[in-house]
Request: fold
Amino acid sequence: MESYAFVLVSLIAIASVSHSVAQSLTHGAFPVEKLLINPIPTVTQLQFYMQAVDTGGNETTYRVSNSSITDSSPAKFGFVDIFDNLLTETPDPSSNIVGRSQGIFGTSDLSEVAVYNDLNVYFTSGIYNGSTLHIAGRFPVFTGYRELFVAGGTGYFRLATGIVTLREIAVDSMTMSAVVEFNVTVVHPILA
Ligand SMILES: *[C@@H]1O[C@H](CO)[C@@H](O)[C@H](O)[C@H]1NC(C)=O
Ligand SMILES: *[C@@H]1O[C@H](CO)[C@@H](O)[C@H](O)[C@H]1NC(C)=O
Ligand SMILES: *[C@@H]1O[C@H](CO)[C@@H](O)[C@H](O)[C@H]1NC(C)=O
Ligand SMILES: *[C@@H]1O[C@H](CO)[C@@H](O)[C@H](O)[C@H]1NC(C)=O
Reply:
């Protein structure tokens, strides 16, 4: 798993990736159409872990509202959480920091417990530092497989699209905290 963690699997050499990152991040608002003229289509695979802490004094996830039927609804319909969760390289919360997962999460299905997610992955280290990925979608809470999509990105990930699979790998019932594994496959152009 270590070798897979937070690695870049791209169609081109790392040296030219760094060059491209430098261009896309330090040149600020360069014309984005440059990415569409002779783009190098790139597939970047990332794996990281979200530390969602709901209670216990160092919360990073907060319930901001319940609907009038959340308590009585079998699907727990209509609560909204907002979070700013740490992202780490391994499941260990003290492992290297990848960034933050910032967004909202809520129950939006009247008949089963299923959530709506809308979050930004904000990278704060490595070659992606300062870039973001926008991830959204729906998953039912009580089935194993969870898939979301990449709806866009900034910086290194301009014009991105992609797929995210995730699973809870640890839940602490005392603090209601969870560690969630994210596997992200991003398809995006980089400057030729
Ligand atoms: C909160 O985090 C700080 C710094 O990591 C730690 O020292 C403290 O024990 C934590 N508090 C709780 C209640 O977990
Ligand atoms: C939402 O409901 C839960 C469960 O009844 C309760 O613990 C929580 O305080 C409520 N939060 C808000 C913001 O209404
Ligand atoms: C990430 O970028 C910010 C802003 O340029 C900088 O202050 C910070 O030191 C960088 N962090 C790392 C880990 O490189
Ligand atoms: C993530 O990828 C690893 C390595 O391929 C795999 O073992 C793991 O089951 C995947 N997890 C998810 C949530 O897709």
In short: The two ends are 31 Å apart (CA to CA).
